[in-house]
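Tokens in:
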């Protein structure tokens, strides 16, 4: 539960205790806490209580009007919300109503509200095999940062030139969690997993030529790794990797 949710509940309970709010009025107020029913969406306000972070809006496949309605309901209950796979047109529409909105074009993420203070216990390091993997890596990095973690980035250090990776072993060894993002054959997480004693989250990307099958080849390589301590998320799922890394780091 974030600070806004806690304060809202404490105030409500205090008002009931002091006789300023009736039990019936309190029940009416609590109805909006589980979820808001917008017909096209059930906006989950309890997610922050259950999981520690508010619901995240997945924009792909939604209309701009639907996204704006969900943003309005979420931001009324939370200090910060995040919308993933968002286009710049959607961002411009959101910013018109919420001037505090920020947009990361690489990550395709909109952030509305104040970022959480750093609460993670250590460093999350996001590593890519190539420059083409950066958009997925940025989605992971920004997700973890929004959850209140310290994140650093190390890009373009894939297996075609391993000396580039080994040149940054001080930074790699300082990380508490590592997110390794790679397309093509997807070998980078296995290399990193054999070098460190911390969790490695492998993220296959759809980057590659025809026989990479839009990331399936990298996914299978990562699932078949012989290096211990590696978990694998779905193809291009930077959000899932960043969220999981944030949970570990907390």
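Residues out:
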């Amino acid at each position: 539960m974030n600070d806004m949710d806690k304060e809202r509940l404490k105030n409500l309970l205090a008002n009931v205790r002091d006789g300023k709010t009736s039990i019936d009025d309190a029940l009416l107020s609590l109805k909006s806490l589980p979820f808001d029913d917008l017909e096209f969406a059930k906006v989950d306000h309890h997610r922050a209580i259950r999981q520690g972070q508010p619901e995240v809006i997945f924009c792909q496949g939604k209309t701009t009007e639907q996204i704006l309605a969900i943003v309005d309901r979420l931001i009324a209950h939370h200090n910060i919300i995040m919308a993933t796979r968002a286009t710049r047109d959607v961002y411009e529409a959101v910013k018109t109503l919420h001037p505090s909105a920020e947009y990361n074009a690489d990550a395709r993420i909109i952030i509305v509200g104040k970022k959480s203070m750093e609460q993670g216990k250590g460093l999350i390091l996001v590593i890519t095999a190539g420059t083409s993997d950066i958009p997925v890596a940025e989605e992971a990095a920004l997700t973890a940062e929004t959850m209140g973690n310290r994140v650093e980035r190390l890009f373009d250090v894939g297996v075609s030139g391993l000396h580039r990776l080994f040149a940054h072993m001080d930074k790699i060894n300082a990380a508490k969690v590592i997110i390794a993002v790679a397309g093509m054959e997807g070998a980078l997480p296995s290399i990193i997993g054999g070098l460190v004693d911390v969790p490695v989250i492998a993220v296959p990307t759809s980057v590659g030529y025809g026989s990479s099958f839009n990331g399936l080849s990298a996914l299978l390589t990562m699932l078949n790794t012989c290096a211990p301590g590696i978990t694998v998320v779905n193809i291009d799922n930077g959000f899932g990797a960043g969220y999981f890394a944030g949970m570990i780091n907390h």
